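One example given next:
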Amino acid sequence: MTVRTGNVRLGIVGARGQGGFYAGLIAAGKVPHMSVGALTGRSSATETAVRERFGDVPYFTDPIQMMESGAVDAIVTTVPHYVHPEMAISAMERGLHVLVEKPLGVYTKQVRRMLAAAEERPSLVLGAMFNQRANPLFARLKQVLSSGELGAMRRGTWVITNWFRPQSYYDSSPWRGTWGGEGGGVLINQAAHQVDLWQWLCGTPSSVFAKVPFGFAHDIDVDDDVTAVLHYGRRGTGVFVTATHDMMGTDHLEIQCDKGKIVVDNSQRATITRLHRPMSEYSETMDPETIQRIVRGTIDWSEFSSTETVVGTSVYGEDHARVLENFASAILFGDELLAPASDGLNAVRLSNAMLLSEWLQEEVPFDFDEDVFLDELNARIRAEGDYPERS
């Protein structure tokens, strides 16, 4: 679809919650080159709320009718996880650009179908709402790591457990905490952005071994506690820990490289340390006196390194607005996407690999057999007995 007005009319599939939040950002003028074209919802109460907030913006109870109305140039999918690829494919079949909310899907096979539909329509833009990529702090870290100035990664560790959810959260709706309704737990819902950031910053591992005691601290079927070891071959290892049961949780990221390291606390403050020479050279040439100073804790590290501090400045919503603006610019001007949907496949694959490792009780390759994963997922959906199996 060609947008001739210089303004992308966005159709929001799901007017409540996150969809309403995006509509609010656009209506407030925080997203250049974009307007709210239409919204969809399932109830008269939602329509009333939309009318009170956004006036006479077209409202539909059927997303397909909205897609075929001529009122929108693109859509964003703020719908349940399983439906993201389905809505995206339906929109692309009707010539619309698509911004997919995280996660892109529950399992890799459905994401691949969506990406295949996009490849058949190269004129359409298919992006992902990974708003943390627009956070200036993580954007700076990506720049530093991609430049190679810190050398090869040796080890990465991210403990991100500040997702506390009480049992009442899971009890609030029957689909929460289920394989058939939600498609998973902390990996696919709360920590999806960090799973994406991990593979964006550190790359994809060769294999994964994970311990996932499902329903560890809640009466649910899905993951609420995850500890995964990621193997990168000679490039090193990674550890990713996340949970929804730590009331006083932690957010701490460290990436150790041959020429320095990055330490991030609370996703707000990063310290980048650059060694004057690669660690391997220091290891080969360090004299006994210097070694003793390290052992005794009396070393002055400024002899060997320099530091840079990066402080996060994003206000909640600013990063979302940047992704929406970038999506509009990609459609109108051909700008490069901050988060192309094709990148999102690796994030889904990484979380799938963690789950499959626990299900099979073994280390699994990153390029695991997707049919095996789907069989295991469907076995759990059958056991719940409330939702259809997936294909």
Notes: Residues 341-360 form the longest helix (20 residues). The chain has a mean pLDDT of 95. The first strand starts at residue 8 and ends at 13. The CA atoms of residues 76 and 279 lie 46 Å apart.
